[in-house]
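Aim 2 progress update. The chain analyzed this quarter is reproduced below.
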Amino acid sequence: EVQLAESGGGLVPPGGSLRLSCTVSGYILSSDYMSWVRRAPGKGLEWVSAISGSGGNTNYAESVKGRFTISKDNAKNTLYLQMNSLKPEDTAEYYCGLWARGSWLEMSSYTYSGQGTLVTVAS
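Predicted structure tokens:
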């Protein structure tokens, strides 16, 4: 059974940084796309970022471009999201996704089976 486990969230002041991690177990990650999405309080899922299997291609939502960096360590079966210059509007539960089918740029192409990690940006 494939399991995704997000971690690294917390409370951070505006302008601060956090690094989220997503550990994958029960599956070898080496060639698969992965993504990050988020759900702000009272809102729907929002695309954040995705990365190709090799890590050579990445995609970011306009709202996080230039501030967030996605990366993956296939040897550790782990996906990361480095978040800098955080804003209150980045407050959300963050989920990682493993590609299942379709375009790697579509949120619906991934399965999100972890519990998420909460990021709160507030002073």
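The CA atoms of residues 4 and 113 lie 6 Å apart. The mean pLDDT is 95. These observations will guide the mutagenesis experiments scheduled for the next reporting period.
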